Amino acid sequence: MQILPLFSKHKVVHFNKTDARLANNGISLDLQRLRCRVNFQALKFTPQIEALGNKLVHLLRDKGPFMALHLRYEMDMYAFPWWREKEIVSEERRSQGLCPLTPEETSLVLQALGFDKDMQITSDQHLLMLAVLSSLKVKIVMENVKKFHLHLEGVCKNDPRTILLLCQVKKEILLDPKELQQFHNHSSQMAALDFMVSIASNTFIPTYDGNMAKLVEGHRRYLGFKRTVLLDRKKLVVLLDLYQNGTVTQNDFEVSVRLAHEKKMGQPSHRRVIVDKPKEEDYFYANPLECLCEQRDCDDLLGLGKRNSSEVSS
């Protein structure tokens, strides 16, 4: 009775202990599930964003299955995380899996995972980035952008590293410029469109696990463990180097990449807990396990039911 009057007056109520920065774990089951209902069901974008986002999704689905590629290969990914350090050993950072994959590395991994030219890929990158995807021969499937299509083909044909033909689509190409006019200079609103498309995609692949990637991952789990490929950058950089220097064959490279990601497809998994180090443990909204199963069913969901039964019987 104390909450309802406040909600009626202010329309928005902030519940304590619901912010991920405060706690991922050690919270009652009821409160954890409330967080899920608020984040994954109650919160909505503005009607304008919802309408345009839904239109984007319909346009993509009309063309067939599509993948959302969160290609975080941007200057800020390098500048801000390590700005306190005057000297950065790039090779060391990369070997630790702390760098997003380059466009060329990404294309090699996509090919190894079995994505072919018939799969649409929607990216959140700018048009300039599409033009410099050195190892992707980009084909835009929309008829009204033939000039852009030809420009990209010319760029790719001149690059000897071009190895893969993929359909890559952007919201700026799918939509009329007038429809996006209201969102210009509003990066968060543009990101909201990317978020909606990422949630709806058949497959979501982030090349770097930032905040948006984690939110999309968790939302897709909540919707029934939709396919989300969580790239193991630490393993991948080793495999990529071995392949690119000729140490391993393409077939061995592809087999190794697939084996490394068998259990990284967004399927049910435990959330990693690190006591007293909340920033290093798994993000609650990326894997809200408490909201995805009843207590007695969690072991079965995680594939632990049979193992536990055999342990008891033995």
TrEMBL record:
Pathway: Glycan metabolism
GO biological process, one term: fucose metabolic process
Lineage top rank: taxon: Eukaryota
Pfam families: O-FucT (PF10250)
GO MF annotation, one: glycosyltransferase activity
GO CC annotations, alphabetized: cytoplasm; membrane
Membrane topology of this protein: Single-pass type II membrane protein
Keywords, comma-separated and alphabetical: Carbohydrate metabolism, Fucose metabolism, Glycoprotein, Glycosyltransferase, Membrane, Signal-anchor, Transferase, Transmembrane, Transmembrane helix
Localization (cell): Membrane
Family listed: Belongs to the glycosyltransferase GT106 family.
PANTHER family per record: OS02G0726500 PROTEIN-RELATED, RHAMNOGALACTURONAN I RHAMNOSYLTRANSFERASE 1
Protein name (Swiss-Prot/TrEMBL): O-fucosyltransferase family protein
Native organism taxonomy: Eukaryota, Viridiplantae, Streptophyta, Embryophyta, Tracheophyta
